[in-house]
Write a structure and sequence with these properties.
With 141 residues, the protein is α/β, with parallel strands linked by helices. 39% of the residues lie in helices and 21% in strands. The protein has a 5-stranded parallel β-sheet, with helices on both faces. Helix 1 runs parallel beside helix 2. The longest helix is centred in the middle third of the chain and has 19 residues. 28% of the residues are buried.
Length: 141
């Protein structure tokens, strides 16, 4: 089974959706299916960052970008998930979807910002339960 047969692709924002699609496009010949996912991080007892309905609407917009950019070339599924740990939720959703790998585009930010906010990219590749593929920056972004 090819590693990129069915990739779960995390999407954080509209701009991230555009840049992730551009980074994934050169590899679509190897991909049969993409499950694009936006994880709404729950506070685990803390106050959520924004009203839930607004966050769901935003997620639908972000995922629609992926569907619009890639659906002519590959089968697309979209999901919105909720969890207190983005990384744990991504692996749970990947298993549930039957993904063969998680493909992501590392996001920028200074080292101090990543240290204080938690570096999702580092956490994704530390002790993964399935292959994790870091997509290179596209020529568009």
């Amino acid at each position: 089974m090819p590693i990129l047969e069915h990739v779960l692709v995390p999407i954080a924002s509209e701009n991230d959706a555009i840049e992730t699609c551009a980074a994934l496009e050169p590899y679509l010949d190897e991909v049969e299916r993409v499950t694009a996912i936006h994880v709404i991080e729950k506070g685990g007892g803390a106050v959520d960052k924004a009203p839930l309905e607004k966050r769901r609407e935003d997620a639908a917009e972000f995922l629609a970008v992926v569907d619009g950019r890639l659906s002519a070339d590959v089968s697309i599924d979209t999901r919105t998930a909720f969890g207190t740990s983005v990384v744990r939720t991504l692996f749970e959703e990947a298993e549930d979807a039957g993904a063969t790998a998680i493909a992501f585009r590392p996001r920028g930010g200074s080292r101090i910002v990543r240290l204080l906010a938690g570096d999702t990219a580092t956490n994704l590749v530390t002790d993964p339960t399935l292959p994790v593929v870091s997509l290179p920056a596209s020529e568009d972004g």
